[in-house]
Design brief:
Blueprint (H helix, E strand, L loop, with lengths): L8 H16 L4 E7 L18 H9 L1 E3 L2 E2 L5 H10 L33 H7 L3 E7 L18 E5 L12 E4 L2 E4 L33 H15 L5 E6 L11 H8 L22 H25 L6 E7 L12 H4 L14 H4 L3 E4 L8 E3 L3 E2 L3 H8 L16 H4 L9 E6 L5 E6 L3 E5 L18 E4 L15 H13 L16
Parallel strand pairs: 1-8, 1-9, 2-11, 3-12, 4-5, 4-8
Antiparallel strand pairs: 2-10, 5-6, 6-7, 9-10, 13-14, 14-15, 15-16
Helix pairs in contact: 5-7, 6-7
Length: 506
């Protein structure tokens, strides 16, 4: 089950035995692709007018597109935790980004505990080869949260999300071994123009161009994994780092957008904040998303070449909404979240409503569109249903299988969806059915003295009438508000590590 350079023959023999039995039983392959900080409206099939994404748009035409899909949380690590474990943020272990570096670890984020059961572990029990390629962010290689200890046979990419801020790093991880890249020197994700450099001279930005583009190397390993396990079944988890800043993209990919001749003021970072500078940040951001689209296309082309498309469930989504760094990503220029309120880091719609496309030829209706309210916790039970697994979802998970919706059988809408976020001031949100949404903000205000009282206010929005969350209807709907506030209390198990003390009466 390892990459050929570090083959373990015993593991391969066992894997092939499992795969032969599973393929004979008709179990489909699974390719789960997740973008990083891609906004709800940054794909053509979701209304984007400036950025070209023809391959993902075609994928949507071949499958089902969801309009009410919610990622696991408002930033990277906690969103991925919900996806992997099937637990919503009131029960999940990881509820915010938390670097382990200040705590004495060499790199990485707060780890999943050893007893956590991930979707990869369950699929491996079902006979699937499991591989993860891209950004992990749920525990470094020495911890219990290592992808190799959480159900994946193969890993290639970035373990630490801070490391993933650079697209031209010195190394990536090849399983538990560092894999050298040809970037001499590596390009940091956070840097400034040279002292005295003219910000209007494009040559001053050349020092932020590397030689060995990490996303291209990661895509190569995705393709190799699929080739190695063509006799399947396989679970290929592909959490690409695109389009998360820094703005790093090869010149060849940038050229088509430079030809657009947009007004494109340089991002300089001369104040010492943000990521690495770029001379044409609008063109760079668009080019990064188009390059991601090409990489998705390479995966789809390989499935066709190997005659696997009919036997493969392909899922495309994003880990959270568009970044809030307006000097680097011009979300207003691109209309990145359309009419939605909020960006990455917010539990308003723009921070957590993200694209979702599912293709399974002959099973999922081509060109279908669904407004079913679904979240990342739903993928664990959904995939188990779609593959007719012998294993059932653990009893402590929170997801609702959307297999009936995908297979055209129809299903009742979910009762509620719960989110909390221990970052960006502390937030809570509950979606009640497909109409009502309650939101709480500023639950951990800056400068709060210990023991000081905080007035907790719940905003209430009718999303069917007011998708932009512009009119708070809490005062007019006390019964709905009471139901939502009861769920905000009942769905939350307190976390010492990711505490929101005001919600726990502290």
């Amino acid at each position: 089950m390892k990459f050929p350079r570090i083959l373990h023959l015993g593991a391969v023999a066992v894997a092939l035995a499992f795969s032969t039995v599973a393929r004979a039983a008709g179990m489909p392959n699974i390719v789960f692709i997740m973008a990083d900080d891609l906004g709800y409206a940054e794909l053509g099939c979701y209304g984007q007018a400036k950025i070209r994404t023809p391959r993902i748009d075609a994928l949507a035409a071949q499958g089902m597109r969801f309009t009410r899909n919610y990622c696991g949380n408002a930033v990277c690590a906690p969103s991925r935790c919900v996806l992997m474990t099937g637990k919503h943020p009131g029960h999940a272990e990881v509820r915010n980004n938390r670097s382990m570096i200040p705590l004495g670890e060499p790199e990485g984020q707060h780890p999943l505990p050893a007893e956590e059961v991930t979707i990869a572990e369950i699929l491996r029990r079902e006979g699937y080869a499991t591989g993860a390629f891209g950004k992990w962010g749920l525990g470094n290689m020495q911890s219990t949260g290592s992808p190799l200890k959480q159900g994946f046979d193969r890993f290639f990419g970035y373990n630490c999300q801070s490391h993933a801020h650079s697209y031209y790093p010195e190394t990536l991880w090849d399983n538990d071994t560092k894999y050298p890249l040809g970037n001499v020197p590596p390009i940091p994700g956070h840097a400034s123009l040279a002292d005295g450099a003219d910000p209007n001279d494009p040559r001053g930005y050349d020092l932020f161009k590397g030689q060995d583009y990490a996303p291209a190397r990661i895509n190569e390993q995705v393709l190799q994994f699929i080739r190695d396990h063509r006799d399947g079944p396989f679970f290929c988890y592909y959490p690409t780092i695109i389009p998360h800043v820094a703005l790093h993209v090869p010149d060849a990919e940038l050229a088509p957008y430079l030809a657009e001749k947009w007004t494109d003021p340089p991002f300089t970072r001369q104040d010492g904040h943000g990521y690495t500078p770029h001379f044409t940040p609008r063109a760079a951001y668009a080019a990064m998303i188009s390059m991601m689209d090409k990489n998705v296309g390479k995966v789809l082309d390989l499935l066709d070449e190997l005659h696997l498309a009919e036997d493969t469930i392909v899922v495309f989504t994003s880990d959270n909404g568009t970044t809030h760094l307006d000097k680097e990503v011009d979300f207003e220029f691109f209309d990145s979240v359309a009419n939605l309120r909020g960006l990455k880091g917010s539990l308003y719609e723009g921070g957590v409503r993200v694209p979702l496309i599912v293709r399974w030829p002959g099973k999922v209706e081509a060109g279908g569109v669904s407004d079913f309210v679904t979240g990342f916790e739903d993928w664990l039970p959904t995939l188990l249903d779609l593959i007719s697994a012998k294993t059932t979802a653990p009893g402590n998970t929170d997801g609702v299988s959307i297999a009936p919706t995908l297979l055209g059988q129809g299903q009742a809408g979910r009762d509620f969806l719960y989110r909390e976020f221990a970052g960006y001031g502390g937030q809570q949100a509950v979606w009640l059915g497909d109409r009502w949404k309650g939101v709480r903000q500023d639950l951990i205000p800056k400068g709060k003295k210990k023991g000081a009282e905080i007035a907790v206010k719940t905003e209430l929005y009718d999303l069917l009438a007011d998708e932009s969350e512009s009119k708070d209807l809490a005062a007019e709907n006390p019964e709905v508000l009471a139901k939502i506030e009861a769920l905000m209390k009942s769905e939350r198990v307190p976390s010492e590590t990711f505490a929101i003390p005001v919600l726990d009466g502290k």
